[in-house]
Amino acid sequence: MKRTSTANWKGSGKEGSGSLATQSKVLTNTAYDYKSRFEDGTYTNPEELIAAAHAGCFSMKLSFVLGAAGFTPDSIDTSCTITLENGTITSSHLSVKAAVPGIDAEKFAACAADAKANCPVSKLLNAEISMEASLA
Fold first, then answer.
1. Whether pLDDT at 127 is above 90
2. Among the listed residues 90, 80, 89, the one whose alpha carbon sits nearest the alpha carbon of residue 116
3. Which whole number is the average pLDDT over 113-119?
4. Residues spanned by CATH 3.30.300.20 within the chain?
5. Tell me, which fold does domain 46-135 have in CATH?
6. Do the Cβ atoms of 82 and 53 come closer than 8 Å?
7. What predicted TM-score, i.e. pTM, was given to this entire model?
8. Rounded mean pLDDT, 98-110
9. I want to staple 128 with a disulfide (CB 3.0 to 4.6 A). Which of 62, 91, 100, 102 is the partner?
């Protein structure tokens, strides 16, 4: 399977602006610019999109890992914070709260660690990936 997204940028790095689009059309001419990336702009930016991708990928992987261990989650809520420092993504931090009937904290922690290590986005990122995971 392959997925495609496109970016179009016009102008200089600081004064220019761009738009993003995804194959699914979820994003269509979605604006991004310098202010949204490095200041307090109102558009999206690559780091925000990476954070969404990591949170979504991890949550789905955790559901699969829990299922393989015999548990069905009622909910998995994950937030992800991407840190950009000096032009480099230096870390991705996952914060997870899950409601999983019948699981104990030790087993949940093992499942969460497995998902963190093995979700495709975690494997892609060449950055420190940290996580805190707890049951609701």
1. no
2. 80
3. 97
4. 46-135
5. GMP Synthetase; Chain A, domain 3 (3.30.300)
6. no
7. 0.91
8. 98
9. 91
